[in-house]
């Protein structure tokens, strides 16, 4: 990741938005914050520009010509270069839960629904850049035989690599940074994804269910990912093995 200079010197931000007036408005607000901003107007150009210049962050409209934003995200995340882990904030007029889950599972770091205030987008950019820098400088978290490595973006159990989606990793890394602390579903949405969303609490429940299937020896009696009734979830600060 290439984030060390971002907050002090401004970031290199790529904006992919087919509405030219909206793109120009975003550019002006971001440049006012000190960011170097490049604008493109279709998905194919977004992929090419991201691969050519490796931006520090991509503001990506979902509905675009040639290649839509979801496919842009899918292509970049499947790559091997620096562009594969570029932080992505998606912009969309879609607001259904399925669209939200799909965008996050493809690896989007945040999700803003149109219409929105450009100042809110600037705030989201600031938050995502700060969080990405923290991940780049982060330590490996260990609880029992579970390891979460924010730099390598890997989860291991008993030394075995566990395949998780980008959204699942963000939730797990958030919990692992404060083992034993109980998080509400809303806090997990805000901490893991950086946006304020109150409608889709069950988004966290779905991801937690999938994580338990991948990590827990007995998903119905979890040793790592604990439910805190009336609150939300926490990662156990220690795991006691059954001696039998």
Automatic annotation (TrEMBL):
Question: Is Transcription one of the keywords UniProt gives this record?
Answer: yes
GO cellular component terms attached to this protein's record: cytosol; protein-DNA complex
GO MF terms held by the record: phosphorelay response regulator activity; transcription cis-regulatory region binding
Keywords in alphabetical order: DNA-binding, Phosphoprotein, Transcription, Transcription regulation, Two-component regulatory system
Q: Which residues form the OmpR/PhoB-type domain?
A: 138-237
Taking the record's annotation, the residue ranges forming a coiled coil are none
Q: In which domain of life is the source organism classified?
A: Bacteria
Location of the DNA-binding region in this protein: 138-237
Positions bearing 4-aspartylphosphate: 61
Against Gene3D superfamilies, the record matches this protein to: 3.40.50.2300, 6.10.250.690, Winged helix-like DNA-binding domain superfamily/Winged helix DNA-binding domain
| GO biological process, any | regulation of DNA-templated transcription
Stored InterPro entries: CheY-like_superfamily, OmpR/PhoB-type_DNA-bd, Sig_transdc_resp-reg_receiver, WalR-like, WH-like_DNA-bd_sf
Q: Where is each Response regulatory domain found?
A: 12-129
Name of the protein this chain belongs to: DNA-binding response OmpR family regulator
> What organism does this protein naturally occur in?
Kribbella amoyensis
Upper lineage is:
Bacteria, Bacillati, Actinomycetota, Actinomycetes, Propionibacteriales
């Amino acid at each position: 990741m290439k984030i060390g200079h971002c907050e002090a010197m401004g970031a290199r931000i790529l904006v992919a938005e087919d509405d030219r007036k909206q793109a120009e408005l975003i550019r002006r607000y971001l440049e006012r914050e000190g960011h170097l901003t490049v604008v493109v107007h279709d998905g194919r150009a977004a992929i090419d520009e991201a691969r050519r210049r490796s931006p520090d962050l991509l503001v990506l409209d979902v509905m675009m010509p040639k290649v839509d934003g979801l496919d842009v995200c899918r292509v970049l995340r499947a790559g091997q270069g620096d562009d594969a882990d570029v932080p992505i904030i998606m912009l969309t007029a879609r607001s259904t839960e399925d669209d939200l889950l799909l965008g996050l599972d493809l690896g989007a770091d945040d999700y803003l629904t149109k219409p929105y205030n450009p100042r809110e987008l600037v705030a989201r950019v600031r938050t995502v850049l700060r969080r990405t820098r923290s991940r780049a400088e982060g330590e490996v978290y260990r609880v029992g035989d579970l390891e979460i490595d924010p730099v390598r973006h890997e989860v291991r159990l008993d030394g075995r690599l566990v395949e998780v989606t980008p959204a699942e990793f963000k939730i797990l890394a958030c919990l692992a940074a404060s083992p034993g602390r109980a998080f509400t579903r809303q806090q997990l949405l805000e901490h893991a994804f950086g946006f304020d969303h109150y409608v889709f609490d069950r988004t966290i429940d779905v991801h937690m269910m999938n994580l338990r299937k991948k990590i827990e020896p007995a998903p119905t009696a979890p040793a790592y990912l604990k439910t805190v009734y009336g609150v939300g979830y926490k990662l156990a600060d220690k795991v006691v093995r059954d001696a039998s």
